[in-house]
Request: fold
Amino acid sequence: MDTTTQTTTSLYDRLGRHEGITRITRTLIGNHMANPLVSIRYAGRDMKKVEQRVIEFFCAGAGGPETYTGQDMLATHKGMNISEQEFVAVIDDAMAALESNGIDATTRNDVLTILWSLKGEVIRV
Ligand code: HEM
Reply:
């Protein structure tokens, strides 16, 4: 693959399309459940539904053909009073999930940029 091809490969492809993103999302939710800073927030939630929505969100946000059927980020997190520390914990879990699924550093940074751009819709809303 030459440089031009590499730089034009979509984020969706670099994450392994629907199958890869499903695997990454399952790892991510496993990381959340093992992270006391985050797991407490998910007590009593329908995790199958959260998983499905996060897969859709991730796929659509990476440029895939999937449709996201959940609420927007502001509506989803409104009233939760999420802290900066919790936000960083979720991002750490996401970066670890990407790394343990073999996603390269450039692609991890691309995902980080997208997640970081959403902070105003998640923290203390
Ligand atoms: C950029 C960071 C984040 C993104 C992209 C994100 C994305 C999402 C998505 C797509 C959903 C599903 C929405 C739906 O079902 O309609 C969701 C739900 C949820 N998020 Fe986040 N989230 C982020 C940060 C956080 C943080 C920092 C916390 C708290 C530690 C958090 C707690 C939750 C909870 C508890 C739910 C479940 C809501 C429910 O079941 O109704 N999220 N998030």
About this structure: The chain is about 65% helix and 0% strand.
